[in-house]
Every structure is written in C-alpha cells, then in structure tokens.
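Feature request disguised as a bug: please show the residue count (173) next to PAP2 family protein in the output. Example input:
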Amino acid sequence: MEIHILDMIQNLRTPIGDVVVPLITRLGDAGIIWIILTVLLLIIPKTRKTGVIMMAALLVDVLLCNVLIKNLVARTRPFDVNTAVQLLVAKPRDYSFPSGHTAASFASVTALYLAGEKKMWKAALVLAVLIALSRLYLYVHYPTDIIGGVVFGSLSGYLGYKIVEWIQKKKIK
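Example output, currently without the count:
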C-alpha cells in the first residue's frame, strides 16, 4: 500500500516541483538547517537556553534515530523496491525507517516549542512539514518512515528539553 501511495505522489510531479523539492530536502541534509539555527541561537545570549535545548534534542535524535532505530529496523528504501523510479537526488545509503530528515526537523520544532519560542516554532513547523513531504515526493521514504520520524523526532525534542531541565535543577541544588 505504501508503494501505491508513493506512486500516486509520483503522478503529481511537475518540472517546477522537480527543481524546488530537492532544494527543500537539502535543507534537511545532515540536519544542516537545524544545526545552523542551533548555533545561531547559542551565539545570541538572549536565546542561548533555546540553543542548548535544540542541541540536546538533536543529539538525542541522532542517537535514537540514526544510531539505534535505523539499524535495528534496517528497512529497505522504496527506490530499492521499485527500481523504475528516477530519483532526483543521490541515493541515500542508510536505512529508511525512520526518516532522519523528518526526525531532526520535528526534534527541532518540539525543542523550539517547549523552549517557548512562540513565533520561531511555527515557522520551523512549516519547514519541517515541507522537508517531510519532500522525502515522499523524492521516493526516498515510505509514509510510515515519515510518521516514525515525526514521532521519534518529537520524542527527541521532548527528551532534549527534559535533559536540559534536569541539568539545570541539578546545578541549582
């Protein structure tokens, strides 16, 4: 069923989409947009705590999703199942579940939300959704990989926030 959904999305491809969507997905390559945002937040004294929370969230995300879950599940990517699809990006070499792009994006969104960044988390959410959808358009993830990325990314954001909160309480005592 998931391949059928991806094939339906392939029928929606357009020349403009074929240019724009890879650019959107590149923002999530190696979590680069979220790492850059984290560094900027860490540099600015007023947003330093938010930067620390994002950094913790992204570290939890890497360990949970990329090191642990991807290797435990070891799911084949959809382009390896349906080899007739012409990819618009280089073939990712890691496993499919969960989507790392999506997980890092939602870890960041959750961290921003829990840190109280009222405007920033909303803009980040829009970008996170676009990055997640780009992975389907590009045929590099199944829909359940995206759902898994949202769930585990959000969990990572929450855990990153709780870790920072716990460390702060330890410092006060």
